Amino acid sequence: PEGRAVEVRIEVTQNGAMLPASSVASSEQMIEHEFSYSVPANQAVNLTLSCAVLEEGRILVRRTHTAYLAPFVQELGDASRMLAETEALLPQLIDAAGLEERHSFLQARLGKLEPKILTAGALTESGRGDLRNATHAFINEVKRLRDVARAARYAAEKGNVVFLVAANPWAPFGGLDEIGEGRVDNAALAVEAFHGETESAALNIFNMSSRPRTFRVTLDGMKREAAAVPARDAVSLHEVVAVPTQMRDFSADALPLLNGAELLHVPAWDARQLWLNINTAALSPGEWSGRLRLGSLDIEPIAAEADIRLTVWGPRMPGEQPLSLCHWGYVHRSMLKDWPEEALADQVRNGTNVFVGTIHPAATYNEQGEIVGDIDFSAHDAYVKRHAPHGMILFFNYQRSLKGPGDMDSDAYAKAHVQWLRAWAAHLKQLGVDHAGYALYPVDEPGLSDGLVEHYLLMAKLAREADPDILLYTDPVGRITEDELREMTPYVDIWCPNRNGLILDDKNAAKLDIIKGSGATVWMYECDGNVKHQSPLGYYRAQAWLAWHHGMTGIGFWSYCTSQDDPWFRPTLRHDYLMVYPGRGVVSSKRWEAVRDGVEDYTMLAKLRGLVEAAEDNIDAEDLDAARALLSEGVHTIAVFCGMDDDNTLPGPDGMSCVRRVADTRWKKIQDARRALAGLLARIE
């Protein structure tokens, strides 16, 4: 407690032979230290573990533990204990059909496995490997049965084979594992949202019986005092579907709308998750209540219900969105190509206001650098008319739509290119799209390979010559040099640096300073794979908070829908990258919902900052200090979730139970920050 400097030393002795000690010095109150050791797979070991705390060489305290380890004996004991626990639980269940038979079967298998384990030392290396695999598979089966019995006993205590639990929507759904983790406390769905915002909730449905059951899901209308709003005007129901990932496992990520009959199937001895999106646009500020009901399609239906408690905060979501959102959604050549209108509506609904366009005016030039014939704007115009009303268009790789006899570094190409851009800009103006409505995006990720920066500069200089008001966009990566960034600076209007390479990497801080100091608009983007396992709160929602922390005004993710792989399956051509799934239109994901939430968070932060800047002298001093703290230190508390803390954005070696605990902590901090934001906005407005 006094913060004295001490040394923690760990020693391991195997069969009398001491391994090299491992130690760490610290003055912290809690000191953690790990020391790895190996035990042979083919013989028993007498093991002694010793930990001592020393100060200036003097031992303050020591603890020693001894153990006798034989191959697989620990696993044998674990299986015996779990089977004994299961046997004790079975008489307490409402419905134990099938579990009793399974228990007897596994008990018999244990009897056959035990003599093999006791003679494991005599096996060959290959034989021990086979025994190890068989033992681990057996342990998993026993654990699964024990967990089912525990869950069924919990249901019996509730007096029903079916029970409902309100869940953290952003924690990965763990099914029956969540009961073993104690995640069964909440029965009511509690949601808080700004007026005009969409927020989400999740409900876990457990069927602890020997029969698979289909439930009809119904919603009561939302009520507040004398006011009532039909549920269909505020709540949409989605089934959470587990999908295969690039890691050859599953992630409960996809959110298809509950089918037309609003039926949900839950297998025997299993669980499913129901997702609710609650849109507060039709609800006035205040406390609202509703109820979700389930009835099984049985002769004697099994009923269960959960209350919905919704707080709509008074501050309204502004119509103007200050954060730019881009995600490279090439709908016309994706699995959503047959649903272009639905895909566009979905993107806009979730905050997309930057569209990467790959459809450009086609033109041809001759050896003298003159445009030959008419420029073909037909396909370009159709794209622009659909997307321009909803935000900015980034015209990517546009330069290849100008074709002729010369290379791109030829005089003829340069002359024609300038004419072409001038005609293009004039045509866009005729369509009602001014310079702020689009930008040229000649090169992707300069710095990724040699020659990209040079090509960007070639195209950018031609654009400046054609029309200095045409905006230029670039998305550099960490390998770009400081000199290259300085050379590009006069020719960049919108920077969108890579998050990992230029924002999170401290070694590239000087490069980020060049970008921030350029005076241009600065966004950020990321394109990590394995996205079905990426944290909705950390990787997706918190990127908006990270952008705010760095004074940036845009975020981006690769990708909305651009891939040759069907995201419903394990990818075979590339990594998992996509945020949505194809169906009858667009099927959302937990991650895509989190992106929208981040955009909404940023919008309300901007609203608070605007109020503070506009009326600083008229705001209560305590509220003013609290607002400034929230907009700086408070934002940083959430921004660190996006790759700046030790918990990372992907599952680690401690497994999904640890991911759920991290998600709980993050969600509480976000909720606390949003409540503080709502309170400040209400008082200052």
- Quaternary organization: single chain
> Count the strands?
31
Q: How many separate domains?
A: 4
Superfamily (CATH H level) name of the largest domain: Glycosidases
Q: Helix segment count?
A: 15
- Shape, per Cα inertia axes: globular
Major sheet size, sense and barrel closure: 6 strands, parallel
In brief:
The protein is of the alpha/beta class and 685 residues long.
How would you characterize this protein structure?
This protein is α/β, with parallel strands linked by helices. The protein folds into four domains: 6-69; 73-158, no CATH class; 185-314, Immunoglobulin-like (Sandwich), CATH 2.60.40; 324-598, Glycosidases (TIM Barrel). 35% of the residues lie in helices and 26% in strands. The protein has 15 helices and 31 strands. A six-stranded parallel beta sheet has the order 20-23-25-26-27-28, with helices on one face. Strands 1, 2, 3, 4 and 5 form a five-stranded antiparallel beta sheet that branches. Helix 1 (73-89) packs parallel to helix 3, helix 13 (590-614) packs parallel to helix 15 and helix 14 runs antiparallel to helix 15 (655-684). The longest helix is centred in the first third of the chain and has 34 residues, at 125-158. The model has no long low-confidence stretch (mean pLDDT 95).
